[in-house]
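User: Teach me something about this protein's shape.
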Amino acid sequence: MTIRVLLADDQTLVRAAFAMLVESARDMEVVGEAATGREAVDLARRTRPDLVVMDIRMPDLDGIEATRLIAADEELAGVKVLVLTTYDTDEYIIEALRAGASGFLVKDTRPAELLDAIRTVTAGESLLSPGPTARLIARLLSQTPASAPALSSGPECLSEREREVLVLVGRGLNNAEIAEALGLSPLTAKTHVSRIMGKLGARDRAQLVIVAYESGMVTPGSVREG
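Assistant: First, the predicted structure itself:
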């Protein structure tokens, strides 16, 4: 399957570099480039990409609001958003995740990591690395007013095992790591995560991370070192 990617960044050289990188991958193609958030939303509606690589700071409409519009559009269901940030915009990360982003990267990430991130998010995983990134999310959530994603149900509807899995998702573990921690097979761990998302009405793992923190199931001090 070829992953169809839409690039949104107000810097022409950055877009050109990303486009060359994406096109160099055999399993990806660029279906559009946007210089503003408004263009990103319009192009997403026209091209229906699998994933949008979204800068946060853009004119006309910033990346957070553009992400919110894409996530709220029923006709764009299934379109993933991977946001880009710089170290001086860390405070926007949680806003982006709440708006509907499935993950984020810093702009100085290595080329191979960006391609891996595109594949990871398109496959339905969230890009929320353990260690420093998870601690950053925990800190930001503790400093911002509670604003959990609008879900169909809360964690109280989950079984004991599912709550254990949700805690580990919140701590930044992937399916293989969850399986190892709980003595499960990777497939069983993946099934648990899928069922949790179904019960809560969550779009992806990024929403599960926010729920885990804002429900108090995971606290900043409980995030593992990475």
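Now, about its shape. Residues 55 and 84 are 5 Å apart (CA to CA). The domain at 3-127 is CATH 3.40.50.2300 (Rossmann fold). If you'd like, I can walk through any region in more detail.
User: That's plenty for now, thanks!
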